[in-house]
Design brief:
5-stranded mixed beta sheet, alpha/beta, Nucleotidyltransferase, domain 5, 41% helix, 410 residues
Length: 410
């Protein structure tokens, strides 16, 4: 991907001057402007088309401030005025609503799984507009990331008129968001891989990296069922088992982004021996590798793709259905454990059984318990969960700091 395609990015702090002599007021003013810009753009995302006066009421900002931010977003191409409303009479200029302009920009999304990498383009509403899966012939980091960058470049080449704002990368394991590093991914054999630096050099775009469970919490609060929830727990159960927790619109990362590492939490009644030497760890009990091994032992499938187990169950195989229901029931027990610790308002689970089968979702909720079952839902992005995970890392940065993460007008 040529470096010339990269849009220029300017921090929001350079676009404003507070005139204060002390760095403390300047920092406070900069943070206040960033927060105000974020709530205005989020209000347009959630309520658009919406009048500026409506945004002022929703956010508590002054009409003058809202008008100023909307003018900036319009110049940047992030929002546009909607069609003029019909008027039955009266005088004066009608209040033109504004809406998100989802026609100009995209973000790139990269999700690195164990068997393949997903590359995608997402619009500003978090919708996947293009997607491709790249099977891993090798898993060494340099080869995987180079192929991902090339795959993303190919998608952009087939999207004329769409300007890339940046790239989001999501992966399992221990991912340090601040440094853009995959610190440890045991199934890929990665340690201290500078993903953000490598892809930034390859694409010429800003690159943001995070763990896939945290990425999907951000997707849910921006575009999914968890929008407006005061606290959200996300449980990701694939080949890797991870969790993420958000309160008051902030995802908890912890030092070096180690929060959410639940792979070795014990699951009561577990029977599988983990690589750590213990029996019943969440990772070994719940992973898709374990599901596929059990399916092979039962004669359901001879492969390593969990979707084949799902297909067998859909075709009427009772053993495949039982394997999936049993797994979802164990996932429910893991969710109940985390519910006891964190007590979130909303629980979102990414797990193939609960995503696609009513009996699996029912089993999961039964394990959670009747008093909390209604708070548990499958992911909002069943048909595009991995693509959404990658792209949402970049979209979260945009909606948190729209003036600092947006291209200057050309």
């Amino acid at each position: 991907m040529p470096h010339a395609a990269a849009p220029p990015f300017t921090p929001a702090s350079r676009a404003h001057s507070t005139g204060a002599s002390s760095p403390v007021p300047r920092a406070a003013d900069s943070e206040r402007r960033r927060t105000s810009a974020s709530v205005v753009l989020r209000s347009v995302l959630e309520h658009g088309p919406v009048a500026r006066s409506g945004i002022a009421r929703l956010t508590g900002l002054s009409p003058a401030s809202v008008t100023d931010y909307c003018a900036r977003f319009t110049r940047l191409g992030l929002i546009r005025e909607a069609a003029a409303p019909h008027r039955s009479g009266g005088v004066g200029r009608p209040h033109l609503p504004v809406d998100l302009d989802d026609s100009r920009f995209v973000v790139g999304g990269i999700h690195v799984a164990v068997p393949y990498t997903t590359v995608a383009l997402l619009d500003l509403r978090g919708r996947v507009v293009a997607e491709r899966q790249l099977k891993h012939e090798r898993t060494d980091a340099g080869w995987v990331l180079e192929r991902a960058a090339d795959g993303l470049a190919a998608l952009l080449a087939r999207a004329p008129g769409r300007r890339p704002l940046g790239v989001g990368v999501a992966a399992g394991g221990w991912v340090d968001r601040d440094s853009g590093t995959v610190v440890e991914h045991p199934l890929l054999g990665w340690r201290d891989v500078a993903v953000g630096e490598a892809l930034g050099a390859r694409t010429g775009l800003p690159v943001h990296v995070d763990g896939h469970a945290r990425a999907l919490v951000n997707a849910e609060r921006l575009f999914g069922r968890a929008r407006g929830s005061r606290s959200v727990l996300h449980l990701f159960v694939g080949n890797m088992v991870d969790a993420a927790f958000a309160t008051n619109d902030e995802v908890h990362h912890g030092p070096r982004s180690q929060a959410g590492a639940i792979a070795h939490l014990p699951l009561g009644g577990g029977t599988q021996r983990c690589v750590c030497g213990r029996v019943g760890c969440l990772q070994v009990e719940l992973s898709e590798r374990t599901l596929c091994r059990r399916a092979r032992e039962a004669g359901v499938t001879d492969g390593v793709n969990p979707m084949r187990v799902l297909e067998a169950a859909a075709a009427g195989d009772p053993v495949a259905a039982r394997l999936l229901v049993d797994r979802s029931r164990m996932v429910g027990r893991a969710a109940a454990l985390l519910l006891d610790i964190l007590n979130p308002e909303t629980v979102v689970v990414t797990e193939i059984g609960a995503m696609y089968r009513a009996d699996c979702l029912a089993a999961l909720r039964e394990s959670v318990g009747p008093e909390r079952a209604a708070s548990v839902s499958p992911t909002s992005f069943a048909d595009s969960v991995l693509a959404t995970a990658g792209g949402s890392v970049a979209l979260d940065m945009l909606f948190r700091d729209p003036l600092g993460s947006s291209p200057q007008p050309t």
